[in-house]
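Researcher: I'd like a structural prediction for the single chain below. Treat it as a standalone chain; there are no partners to consider.
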Amino acid sequence: MIPLLILGLLIQNPGAHGYELLALMDKRHYKYIVNFTKGSFYYNLQQLEEKGWIEQIQQNPSTIGREIRNFKITGSGRIEFEKLMAEYGTKSEYVNLQFYGALLFADEYDKNKLLELIQSQLEQTKTRIALLDEYLSNTQESPGTIDYYRRMNENSRAHHLVNLEWFEQLKAEIEGPVA
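Model: Treating it as a single chain, here is the predicted structure.
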């Protein structure tokens, strides 16, 4: 998935350098789409260059004394982008929260510690919803166009709201009736 993100971002931002692409991924909250680290991002960037799917373009001298490598997508990179779009666009996978794995053994775990885990999930989910709300409140679709990224974030927000409700119900069931 990381190669698709990099290729797509370079189509949208030809001439960008790695740090700019990472900053866009952070700003757009791509971490909720795919797990990546700075290292895995730069590894994929290097692999795309070695495969000839992206290439460096004329570099501007850096004012801070280090080399800045600006990239653009190549013709073969565009073909790979099309393949990746078809590959990922036809996939539909189950929601897979790592929390589900831990929940399999909830009966074998201390009840108070389990409640702490659920509280952690509640807080993380509320944070994600707040970030999505912030993004959505600062963007608007232009009339006559479809902003797919906005729509994706609206859908993600709806999923998080369902998860929030589920975590709250789960917490209430574990806590039991209030005396």
